[in-house]
Request: fold
Amino acid sequence: MEKFAFIIHPLETKDVARKFPFISRWPEALVEKALQFVPPLTASHITGVKSATGTEAEGWFIGVPLTPKMMMNGMPEKQVLAKIIAAGRKAEEHGAQIVGLGAFTSIVGDAGVTIANNLNIAVTTGNTYTVATALQGVQYAAGLMEVDLSRTRVAILGATGSIGKACARIMAGFGYPITLVARDKRRLEDTQAIIYAESGNQAKIETDLPQAVREAGVVIAVTSALEAVVDAADLQPGAIVCDVSRPRNVSKLVAESRKDVLVFEGGVVAVPGDVDFHFNFGFPPRTSYACMAETMILALEQRYENYSLGRDIELDKVREISLLAEKHGFKLAGLRSFERALTEADIMAVKQQVKVGK
Reply:
């Protein structure tokens, strides 16, 4: 039996209140202050993960009681990293041989490097398989919406981050017209130069996010913003929006107010076996985020090594993890939007709204 763990955290203080209802009456600042003193805890035991090869695995969700706001703005980085390292040591106590860093635990500091250096087990952010499934989702959605990606501008929000840069490099290699979007123009120019050297694709760069969204038929959102950054009014009719970020870069109001755009979550994966996470993170049974799935895949493959760390994702690893996922029976779980599976009828309804608006 292979063993893994995955570190999770609340996205906002009201997530903590669902577990401990009595704090729902507390001011947010008081909740955040109290959470700083709460140690990491075992949130659940994950059972039933079984590869198509017959290999089985079990795991644990380890909770770090910090919100993204606390990790990025509310506490010293050293203190945040110490909390995450403590969660990794709890994973070690369970016998896990690899631990995945979920959501903002993979962003803070140097994207997992310091955490890995302070643990005796392998560490991954899961970002490599997140890239693979996000791109699979975009290509699948484009097929359903009858959108020719070779003729459609793709805006990548957060293009200088690890996931965004990898998505941009791969899509540029396909010859798609892309726009790199981020706040730091110098880093954008560096990414633009890398892409041109690799593929000859002259990507556009843009620091004005709304302008980039207005010009794009496809938007891949992978910023580390703490709140939604995509305005419904900026989206083209028929736009495809893949939101990989947690917290989301696209609010539910966008999907509700713009019935002529297709908004879906990147990186939703069907997990092989009769898996039970014993924890409700808003997905249907036997599905997970791609970052969680990468940790499971590496455990099933007995690849107990640091895999997706730092700010740059190796493109060869994107191909490798895709092949390993296929080998073990992991696959894209269709499209999902705000905790709901998108049906063929949903896609047809979006296409119909686009036709009506023309």
